């Protein structure tokens, strides 16, 4: 910091050398040096000023970096939106907005803390004390350590004869007064400011992007507000009542003897979902799907191996077997009765005379103890699962007959009476050791009961339960589509028929053309009969508006379960079979319906852009069964 | 103490220093009249004188080592004696001895006959040619300014300075000075060969008919006063730190020792080197008209103070590493980081 004062100071010191020194005693400069209060005071004042300035510089530098970091953090937080804005689908983990933002801002907070600590340490290490300042001034002004020496004398760090000490101190003060304020000018944090400038320039050059980001932020906030408002529509009281009755029917099925354990488990799972809907309809759509899934699996099991456990049948003794057969006949559980009769026939093959006599006694006893057959309309169909046709037929039958005659005629027509009578005919054959006749009678009875079970069997109960579930779901989807097409978003308009069809709607004419997957049909509300898909189209980039919040989080209840024993593999097989041309595959239709309903539920609930919702719906429309 | 008194006191101090500067400048000039082209050597010799230290002057023959000491004693009006060290020189030859003398009445008695040491300035010429026993006779004189002869301690006249010379070339039949004795020399001065211009001047001025006479510059009392003033020169703590660091760094086991020192120095300097640095620094400051010691003073005297106090390893001799190079490395290693630290603190 060369200045005039420093030059004069150097001149003063050069005068102490050699030639001019002899005259220095009479020099007015030496005798008129103004007395400073204290060199230490001056140095302390300067030191304080320098250290303050240094702290200020560090603070400014840190603040600038923190501001830059904040802007960068905001930018990083918007990366998923920016990627969508340019048509790039970000990875799924980026879409978790809250998690990603927490990471970004957590990282920023940690970095900011480190930056503040670093600045503090740096400022602490760079602080200067009086001795250091004196040394610095000595070095800068060529005063050959006079200031540092005088400071040491003043502080008492070194002793000297009074005259020499005074001489040194006055020399030092003279130099110090000519030095002036040695506080360096404020040094702006060049790199930090340059970075801030570059950042600002970048932001200024991208006004459209900034505007878009703001727009995205607003939409994101709005979507977040709406997300909590979206819930599955409520089921009608009639649907709830039907589902409750189906839950009771499933519970009845669960109580059946000799039922396979896995079948019982499937029944329980489905029943619990139905009962849960009765308590809380928040996620009823997904619950319906979760209730339907085990029932379908149960149907498959029934077709493949039946619902009864052969081991349990074999483990029953003759008395229990006969008792169960009599009860099944009386309760109209024809398929159970058929299984029990078949088991009894099997036992007759290997039974000796004594065992046969025992079986005959047990069967006689059981049939004797059993009450008269109950009403067909009530008990034989405990879940109210009889079809309307059957109920109608029974009603008309009841109306056409009257009195005792009618009752006896109806009882004679009741197969349970017939089977009970047939069963009563078996023990005498056994007692007569007519093994073959008895076995044949039992098998014949089992076949007839199995045929009759086609209408009132567990399979029929399952089928009716599935129908009720689908009916309730269709009702909900229809409500959802009605809400969605109600004008909240103009880009939405397609529907989905429960019967598998869809088509165009005059209210939402197709726009554009091309890939039916991307475009899909539009306009038909759910549940309406429909024909072939629309001409496709969609709305191009407008339809796939990327500015909608893309944040998807599937609730566990919305996920289609894939059990490790191959259910998922089965689904793949069904899809592959459909792709191979088996277009009339009922399993595919069921599967499609299940996936579509789950997806619809998720689409409705989650923060998915509406145009993306169309995309998902269009996909299911495109792969719907023909 | 009012302002007038301060001004008066400062004026007196300035006069003291000014007088010292005049006197020392005159001495330098006066020596320079006889010894051409060796200003550094002259200054360092004066520093040794002011610091009341003994100096070892090393150089090839004919470069003016003896002349320097002789001229200096003449200019200072000091009693000068010259001892030509030879292998057969005995301690008593330099310290003196008791001699049996007869008085006028015929009685005999032992009388001490002072040796050549009893002078203000003793020139021990070619000191390395004497045996260690004789060399050791100088130890007490150099350190304590006294000799003990026949059990009696005899104080040498003040001021007392031993200026020894040695020839680094002719090493045959010499007895290198032991480290203990080397350490007692405040400075080791090296006489450089004069430049061509100085050589011509030497030829022109010293071969004429007229012999150049040396004038007395200051008296013995003045010299003692200057020696006292030298010891009053202020040494700030950071200067003492630097001196201590320099001394410590001469030891190869010191963490601050430069790599060259660790490799080429067998033994470092003793604490006497620290004293020598400060004393010589004070003398250098006074010689330059300052009442305080600066780092430049220490740097200026570091070579003559430290060069003979570091015992080099055999590797140093093999690789031709001189002690002067080691001192350069020391200064670079110790002074440069301090300067950098101050500079960084200043930014």
Q: Your description of this structure?
A:
The complex is a heterodimer of chains A (626) and B (347). Helices cover 68% and strands 0% of the residues of chain A. Chain A has 626 residues and is an all-alpha fold. Mean pLDDT of chain A is 68; it is low at 1-36, 374-404 and 485-568. In chain B, the strands form four sheets. Chain B has a five-stranded parallel sheet with strand order 2-5-8-1-9. The two termini of chain B are 39 Å apart. Chain B contains 14 helices and eleven strands. Chain B is α/β, with parallel strands linked by helices and 347 residues long. The longest helix of chain B is centred in the N-terminal third of the chain and has 32 residues, at 3-34. In chain B, strand 6 (146-149) and strand 7 (152-155) form a beta hairpin. In chain B, helix 8 (220-232) packs across helix 11.
The count of helical stretches of chain B stands at 14
Strand content of chain B: 15-25%
Question: Span from first to last CA of chain B?
Answer: 39 Å
- Major beta sheet summary of chain A: none
Give the strand content of chain A: under 5%
Structural shape of chain A: elongated
Query: How far do the termini of chain A sit from each other?
Result: 90 Å
Radius of gyration of chain B: 22 Å
Q: What is shown here, in short?
A:
The complex is a heterodimer of chains A (626) and B (347). Helices cover 68% and strands 0% of the residues of chain A. Chain A is mainly α and 626 residues long.
Task: List the main descriptive attributes of the protein structure presented here.
heterodimer, A: 626 residues, mainly alpha, 28 helices, 0% strand, B: alpha/beta, five-stranded parallel sheet, 51% helix, globular
Write the SSE topology.
The complex is a heterodimer of chains A (626) and B (347).
Chain A: H1 4-15, H2 28-31, H3 39-77, H4 79-85, H5 92-95, H6 97-125, H7 130-141, H8 146-155, H9 162-179, H10 190-205, H11 207-227, H12 237-254, H13 261-279, H14 284-305, H15 310-315, H16 318-331, H17 334-350, H18 353-369, H19 388-400, H20 403-413, H21 415-424, H22 426-431, H23 435-456, H24 458-488, H25 540-543, H26 567-579, H27 586-605, H28 610-622
Helix pairs in contact in A: 1-9, 3-6, 3-7, 3-10, 7-8, 8-9, 12-13, 12-24, 13-14, 14-24, 14-27, 16-17, 16-18, 17-23, 21-23, 23-24, 27-28
Chain B: H1 3-34, H2 39-50, E1 54-58, H3 65-75, E2 80-84, H4 91-95, E3 96-102, E4 108-114, E5 121-125, H5 132-144, E6 146-149, E7 152-155, E8 161-166, H6 179-183, E9 185-190, H7 196-205, H8 220-232, H9 237-249, H10 259-264, E10 265-267, H11 271-287, H12 295-306, E11 311-312, H13 314-318, H14 323-346
Parallel strand pairs in B: 1-8, 1-9, 2-5, 5-8
Antiparallel strand pairs in B: 3-4, 6-7, 10-11
């Amino acid at each position: 910091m060369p200045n005039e004062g420093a030059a004069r100071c150097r001149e003063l010191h050069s005068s102490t050398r050699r030639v001019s020194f002899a005259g220095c005693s009479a020099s007015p400069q030496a005798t008129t040096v103004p007395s400073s209060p204290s060199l230490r005071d001056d140095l302390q004042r300067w030191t304080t000023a320098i250290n303050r300035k240094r702290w200020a510089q560090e603070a400014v530098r840190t603040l600038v970096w923190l501001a830059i970091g904040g802007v960068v953090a905001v930018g990083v937080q918007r990366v998923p939106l920016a990627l969508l804005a340019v048509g790039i689908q970000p990875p799924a983990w980026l879409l978790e907005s809250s998690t990603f933002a927490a990471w970004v801002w957590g990282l920023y907070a940690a970095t900011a803390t480190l930056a503040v600590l670093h600045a503090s340490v740096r400022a602490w290490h760079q602080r200067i004390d009086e001795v250091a300042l004196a040394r610095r001034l000595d070095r800068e002004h060529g005063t050959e350590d006079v200031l540092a020496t005088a400071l040491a004398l003043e502080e008492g760090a070194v002793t000297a004869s009074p005259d020499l000490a005074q001489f040194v101190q006055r020399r030092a003060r003279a130099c110090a007064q000519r030095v002036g304020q040695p506080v360096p000018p404020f040094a702006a944090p060049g790199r930090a400011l340059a970075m801030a400038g570059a950042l600002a320039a970048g932001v200024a050059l991208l006004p459209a992007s900034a505007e878009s980001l703001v727009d995205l932020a607003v939409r994101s906030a709005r979507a977040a507000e709406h997300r909590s408002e979206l819930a599955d529509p409520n089921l009608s009281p009639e649907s709830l009542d039907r589902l409750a009755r189906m839950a009771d029917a499933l519970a009845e099925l669960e109580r059946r003897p000799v039922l396979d354990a896995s079948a019982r488990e499937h029944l329980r799972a489905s029943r619990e979902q139905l009962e849960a809907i009765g308590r809380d309809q928040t996620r009823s759509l997904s619950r319906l799907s979760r209730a339907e899934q085990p029932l379908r699996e149960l149907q498959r099991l029934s077709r493949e191996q039946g619902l009864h456990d052969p081991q349990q049948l074999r483990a029953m003794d003759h008395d229990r077997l006969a008792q169960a057969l009599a009860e099944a006949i009386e309760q109209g559980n024809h398929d159970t009765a058929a299984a029990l009769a078949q088991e009894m026939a099997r036992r007759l093959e290997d039974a000796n005379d004594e065992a046969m006599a025992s079986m005959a006694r047990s069967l006689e006893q059981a049939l004797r103890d059993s009450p008269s057959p109950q009403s067909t309309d009530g008990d034989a169909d405990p879940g109210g699962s009889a079809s309307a046709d059957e109920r109608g037929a029974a009603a008309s039958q009841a109306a056409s007959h009257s009195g005792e005659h009618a009752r006896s005629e109806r009882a004679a027509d009741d197969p349970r009476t017939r089977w009970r009578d047939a069963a009563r005919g078996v023990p005498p054959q056994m007692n007569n050791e007519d093994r073959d006749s008895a076995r044949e009678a039992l098998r014949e009875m089992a076949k007839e009961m199995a045929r009759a079970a086609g209408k009132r069997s567990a399979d029929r109960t399952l089928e009716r339960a599935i129908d009720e579930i689908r009916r309730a779901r269709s009702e909900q989807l229809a409500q959802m589509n009605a809400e969605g097409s109600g004008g909240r978003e103009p880009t939405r308009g397609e529907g989905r028929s429960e019967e598998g069809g869809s088509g165009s709607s005059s209210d939402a004419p197709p726009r554009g053309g091309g890939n039916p997957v991307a475009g899909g049909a539009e306009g038909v509300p759910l549940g309406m009969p429909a024909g072939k898909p629309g001409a496709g189209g969609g709305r191009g980039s407008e339809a796939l508006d990327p500015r909608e919040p893309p944040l998807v989080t599937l609730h566990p209840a919305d996920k289609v379960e894939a059990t490790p024993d191959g259910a998922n593999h089965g689904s793949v097989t069904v899809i592959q079979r459909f792709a191979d041309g088996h277009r009339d595959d009922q399993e595919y239709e069921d599967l499609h319906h299940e996936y579509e309903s789950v997806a619809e539920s998720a689409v409705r609930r989650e923060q998915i852009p509406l145009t993306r919702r169309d995309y998902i719906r269009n996909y299911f429309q495109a792969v719907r069964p023909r | 103490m009012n302002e007038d008194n301060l001004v008066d006191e400062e004026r007196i101090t300035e006069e003291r220093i000014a007088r010292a500067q005049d006197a020392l400048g005159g001495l330098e000039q006066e020596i320079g009249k006889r010894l051409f082209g060796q200003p550094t050597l002259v200054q360092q010799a004066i520093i040794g004188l002011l610091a009341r230290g003994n100096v070892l002057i090393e150089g090839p023959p004919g470069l003016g080592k003896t002349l320097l000491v002789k001229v200096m004693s003449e200019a200072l009006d000091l009693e000068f004696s010259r001892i030509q060290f030879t292998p057969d020189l005995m301690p008593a030859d330099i310290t003196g001895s008791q001699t049996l003398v007869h008085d006028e009445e015929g009685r005999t008695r032992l009388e001490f006959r002072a040796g050549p040491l009893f002078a203000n300035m003793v020139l021990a010429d070619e000191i390395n040619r004497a045996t260690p026993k004789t060399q050791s006779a100088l130890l007490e004189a150099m350190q304590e300014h006294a000799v003990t002869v026949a059990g009696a301690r005899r104080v040498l006249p003040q001021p007392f300075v031993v200026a020894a010379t040695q020839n680094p070339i002719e090493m045959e039949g010499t007895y290198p000075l032991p480290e203990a004795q080397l350490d007692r020399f405040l400075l080791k001065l090296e006489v450089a060969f004069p430049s061509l211009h100085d050589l011509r001047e030497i030829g022109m001025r010293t071969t004429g008919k007229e012999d150049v006479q040396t004038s007395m510059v200051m008296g013995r009392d003045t010299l003692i006063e200057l020696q006292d003033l030298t010891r009053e020169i202020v040494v700030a703590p950071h200067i003492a730190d630097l001196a201590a660091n320099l001394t410590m760094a001469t030891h190869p086991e010191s963490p601050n020792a430069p790599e060259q020192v660790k490799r080429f120095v067998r033994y470092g300097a003793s604490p006497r080197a620290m004293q020598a640095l400060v004393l010589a620094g004070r003398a250098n400051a006074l010689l330059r008209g300052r009442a305080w010691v600066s780092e430049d003073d220490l740097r200026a005297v570091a070579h003559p103070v430290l060069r003979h106090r570091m015992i080099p390893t055999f590797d140093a001799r093999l690789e031709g590493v001189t002690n002067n190079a080691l001192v350069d490395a020391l200064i670079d290693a110790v002074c440069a980081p301090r300067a950098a630290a101050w500079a960084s603190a200043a930014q």
